[in-house]
Amino acid sequence: MPALPATAAAPADTAAVTAEPVPPPQVRLRRELAVQPVRLAAALFLAVAATAAALALPLLVRRIVGDFSAHRSLTPGLLLMAAAALAGAGAQALSGFQLARIGEGMTYRLRTAVMAHALRLPLPVVRARGTGELAARVTSDAQLLGQVVEVAMQLPLAALSVLATLGVMLWIDWVLTAVTVGALALLIVLVLLITRRMRANVTGQQEAVGQVAQRFTANLDALTTIKAYRAEPLADRVLAGDAEKLHAVSLTGARLGALVPAVLTLGNQFAMIAVILTGGARLAAGGLQVAAFAAFLLYLLQTVPSVNTLATGFGRLQAGLAARDRCNELLALPPEADPDDAARPVPAPSPDAPAVVFRTVSFTHAGAQRAALNAASFSVPRTGLTAVVGPSGAGKSTALALVGRFLRPGEGSVTVLGHDVGAWPLGALRGRMAYVDQAFTLLEASARDNLQLGRAGAAPDHELARALATVGLTEDVERLPHGLDTVLGREFDLSGGQRQRMALARALLTEADIVLLDEPTSQLDGLNELRFREVVDRLARRSAVVVVAHRLSTVRHADHVIMMSRGAVVDAADHATLLARCAPYRELVTSQLGPPGS
């Protein structure tokens, strides 16, 4: 997987170490089956033992029939037959359990690998794929693939059983065996034609499932808006359309699935009729004994389940291989960190360099007609409060995303603490930053864990208490059922304003050199906005605080203000200077606060 090119040449002392491209992780069934060789060998031995016991039963029946005809005791034969049957059943059950453990282990490894890889994909890739589509890979796809382990063992064993049974049948009577092989060959050809189409159908079903899950998840996230605007009928129609596509694909799969047992039944009946007619003729001609014919019929009946296993197993195998291909397609997507990221040295921050510098940076979102940033250039001082303002769509949030390397610039360069963002290992770069997004996102984890995101070590309780007190959250957290150890989300969640203050407390607890705040005051009342300013002032004394905001009342006291419009930097200075010389800034201030001096 080739490394993405850096946006600008890195300084010589921090140049990336050349590394061989790292191949993407892939799901390989042979490798997965070899993870637990002892258990796999035990399952194989037990399955072979069960097959051997099953093969012995018709021969024992033949012996019992002979003993009965010769008026000998039936007890030894019956005891041997019962022992073989019980041993075969026990071996089959134990083999199935071992295979199930191997399959569940593979499903677990696949799910953890896919989830870990998805969390490390670039944000634009995740958004383009959709959460529902990604969730389908770790749920239904992983389940389908886990079943392949059992099928992978069943198919060769079923084939071995069929071949061994045919060998014994050939020893009993070659004419009846030839009739049986002809019927089975026709049956296998028909089943293979059906299963070839099933693989493509399974892929279509899984894609449709992902689309339904994605749309339904998005509607649940927007449920308040849907209810407020009585948009349930609209949401119903859209979801029903996705469900209809899934329904159509699933019906095709159902038709294909229904054909398999029908073809199997027809083939088995055809084989049985052909063997009975041929055997009857040979019995009448004296070419076949009754005991041998009875044993042959038992072997034929015993072959039917193995043939059915082969036929249905091929269908399940096609479904599993389709799921494997979908998982491998996801795992082949390159992560946002460069392949040589781990080997790249961590640069030392330049003591005299600004915190952030943009040099003629341009960026266009995928599918957009207009650039979000167009040759934007500005710098952020090492400490103090920098406000980035401008009308909606000016590129403010995009600029923040480029600083955190959530996005890569199309042109130009972004430097952080004196070094190009491409020269930093991704973890080291983000370890220098604290980020509060527009949604004030909290993880579905305890309040304690949410407060300590980004820290190298756990913070003592008195530090957590001080941070909560600073943002006015002490009483809110104390009211939670388990205090700091309450898991947030679902049943116990915080309001928008509380989540916002929790995110600010988290930023206070970091030792970040750069604090990025995206629309931080949108849900704060007057009292909490004053608290916010106190928090920002405290952070600005030791770090570079970059605030993106529409409410200019929170940034008038900023040390540095960057005015943006339509992806370009119009001007940059302090508030008073911009009021005096920058007409777009004056218009923005006037539109929100009234004329200057009013």
Q: How would you classify the quaternary structure?
A: single chain
Largest sheet: 6 strands, mixed
- What is the structural class? alpha/beta
The percentage helix is 55-70%
Number of strands: 10
What letter string, H or E per element, gives the SSE order? Answer: HHHHHHHHHEEEHEEHEHHHHEHEEEHH
Question: What is the terminal separation in angstroms?
Answer: 60 Å
Regions with little confidence, pLDDT below 50 for 5+ residues: 1-21
What is the average per-residue confidence, as pLDDT, rounded to a whole number?
81
Q: Which strand-content bin applies to the residues? A: 5-15%
TL;DR of this structure?
By secondary structure, the chain is an alpha/beta fold.
Would you write up a description of this structure?
The protein has 598 residues and is of the alpha/beta class. It contains 18 helices and ten strands. It has a six-stranded mixed β-sheet, sandwiched between helices. It has a four-stranded antiparallel β-sheet with strand order 2-1-4-5, covered by helices on one side. Helix 16 links the parallel strand 7 (514-518) and strand 8 (544-548). The longest helix has 54 residues, at 232-285. Residues 1-21 have low confidence and may be disordered.
List keywords for this structure.
598 residues, alpha/beta, 6-stranded mixed beta sheet, 4-stranded antiparallel beta sheet, 18 helices, 10 strands, 61% helix, disordered N terminus
Set out the fold topology:
Layout: H1 29-33, H2 37-69, H3 75-119, H4 123-129, H5 131-172, H6 174-221, H7 223-228, H8 232-285, H9 290-331, E1 356-363, E2 373-380, E3 384-389, H10 396-403, E4 411-416, E5 419-420, H11 426-431, E6 433-436, H12 447-451, H13 461-470, H14 474-478, H15 496-508, E7 514-518, H16 526-540, E8 544-548, E9 560-565, E10 568-573, H17 575-581, H18 583-593
Parallel strand pairs: 3-8, 3-9, 6-7, 7-8
Antiparallel strand pairs: 1-2, 1-4, 4-5, 9-10
Helix pairs in contact: 2-3, 2-5, 2-9, 3-5, 5-6, 5-9, 6-8, 6-9, 8-9, 13-15, 17-18
